[in-house]
Protein: Purine-cytosine permease family protein
Organism: Sphaerisporangium rhizosphaerae
Amino acid sequence: MTSAVDEVPLTLGEAPPKTLGFLDQGAFWANLGVSLLGFSGALYLLDPLGGAPLSMVAAVLAAVVGSLVGTVMVGLAAIPGARTGAPAMVLLRGLFGARLSYLPTVLNIVQMLGWGAFELWVIANGAQAVFGDSVPYAVWVLAAGALTIALTLRPLGAIRLLRRFVTAAVVVAMVWLAVALLREAPHLGGGSWNAFAPAVDYVIALSVSWVPVAADYARHSRSGRAAFAGVVTGYTIAQVACLVLGIVALALVGNDPDRVWNAFVAVPLGALFFGVLVLREADQSFANVYSTAMSLQNLLPRVDRRVFSVGVGVLTTGVALFANVNSYGAFLGVIGAVFVPMFAVLVVDYFVLGGAARWDTSQDAPSRWAMLVPWLLGFVAYWVFTGAATLEWWDERWAALRELIGFERQPWMSAALAAFVVSALATLLVGLLRRRARA
Ligand SMILES: Nc1ncnc2[nH]cnc12
């Protein structure tokens, strides 16, 4: 069976069409930057350590800094995809070798399944906030799952749909809701700068989760520049707007994340415009399911991507139906710890150590075990530096290690920055040693 004209080829063997320009990428990433999860998750930005909320100015600045840092990472990860036409996990064959690329591939599949289930859960709950409980949660999940699967079957068509029709509706909805919420005169005073760095870490994790996904879309870009600029501009503006709107809405409901959507629905025409955002949330689950399918193609390149999309879509729907989706904060902590250092290794090897010219992304690319070391060191650094709570037994292990080495973490320390610096320097060292060994 052949692919539709200007659609993603069905298997990895065929060349991808390169038809997406800056506006397509920008609109797509702007849609990904607005999320209903961002509205309730804004509490992690406002009060990442629990009990030490940021002032409004500090929170907005943390949103801007975290989004810019995170999206520059995503934008840089997109460039090799645009240059080579390879999907994200296939590119990692160049960094780690074909076999070892299975490790980040599996990690990405797990995070995308997690995100996808979160998204279907959020769409169903958002729909119930608009329409009430007369239609059960499970019916909304099934409907959202079906829409998600339909979008993944024609991914480039879905991206064009977003640019032509959805983006304008989202902008109107966001502006309307922002004005209406501000007219309710929320109390936005108080707070401090104490938890600024953990707040930036949270926002970085929100964006950096797209690092192992970006090339799946950038591979269809007309240029690396269009992909980079589209990601950074679209996602940063949208994510900052979304988080700030979330903070304003939270202020109206006593910072109770379980009631944040009520604030939106309660304003004039709120149900209509919030409904637009609920429907549009399907772009997120689309990206999650489609990228899981692309990741699976790194493991099984000859399988039709639509088979994977349908299977993953059904599985994600099942998880959203039956799983208890409530450990968002811990989930984000793990994502930051895994993908920030992986990004550091990728960007140093590709842009600084000459990977752009020598990466072998074929199916028999030799393993590069040494590249796992800087990644692992960055992962460790993240947990040593982070103050965010995840699972008790896990946090206790890292507290014990801190005590053992006599390290006392300070509130101003950023785990993402520490992980990045450690992995980047370690990658440079590995590169230097390799050159010495060759000379
Ligand atoms: N649905 C999602 N998938 C991946 N990364 C995300 N960051 C915020 N929302 C996301």
Q: What stands out?
A: The pocket of adenine is lined by residues 35, 37, 115, 119, 206, 209-210, 284, 288 (CB under 6 Å). Residues 15-438 form a domain with the Hydantoin permease fold (CATH 1.10.4160.10). The longest helix spans residues 102-131. Residues 186 and 318 are 39 Å apart (CA to CA).
